[in-house]
Amino acid sequence: MRKPLQQYQMIYFDAGDTLLTIPAAQTILKQYLQLRYLDRDETHISELFTEAFRLFYYVNKQDSFEACTPDSDREFWVNLYKYVLHKLGIHEEWTESEIHACCHELYDIYTAPEYYELFDDVKPCLERLQRMGFRMGIVSNFAPTLKTILESKGILHYFEPVIVSTEVGLEKPDPAIFQLALNQAELKPENILYIGDHETNDIWAPNQVGIDAVRILRYSYHTGEGIHSLLELFDNQVKG
């Protein structure tokens, strides 16, 4: 059992898959390929995205932290998209240079505001936390477009600071990004709660600097301990 919510002064959030998501990522890719005369099954695309996330994103990286840049973020996602396209057999019809260009286009599509949606519990949670007097911030591994996306969804004003990996040069699970969050909040670790979806990035990493963390399980392939809605934060005890 963790401390009651009222014993914290500030709540930091992850962004992607915690506050917002692209609910139709597989549809976007299917339509993108159809416009280029390639037809692939949408269910298969969805399965491959899940597989790619497990292989590339939901991994245990607790050492060898590297500096984060807009280019390194783009490279990570381009490689993930390449994996999906190869599994779809696109390399049998396109050259590697065509696939490479396609993956860069997909990165621009998937980091633009248009396709993002907030989870249903986000605005009610933020409004309630604001009424209760909590300070709120964000610590996120994301493209430099994050603030534009948050503004377009009407929630940017809730957060100060918004710490984005590609802007500060640090990337979760490097605990240094959470030390930066502490410094900017000017609070002690025990006064801050962090909420995110990734077991290493969002639980292990903040814990290294003394910040309590709660994992939110947004998808069926998320397993382990955590909450399934941000509104569960308002239960008598925050469960980790």
TrEMBL record:
List the protein's name: HAD-IA family hydrolase
Q: Which SUPFAM superfamilies match?
A: HAD-like
What are the GO MF terms of this UniProt record?
hydrolase activity
InterPro entries per the UniProt record, alphabetical? HAD-like_hydrolase_domain (IPR051828), HAD-like_sf (IPR036412), HAD-SF_hydro_IA (IPR006439), HAD-SF_hydro_IA_REG-2-like_cap (IPR044924), HAD_sf (IPR023214)
Which parts form a coiled-coil structure per UniProt?
none
Q: Which UniProt keywords apply?
A: Hydrolase
Organism of origin: Paenibacillus sp. SYP-B3998
Q: Name one Pfam family in it.
A: Hydrolase
Gene3D superfamilies cross-referenced by the UniProt entry: HAD superfamily/HAD-like, Haloacid dehalogenase-like hydrolase
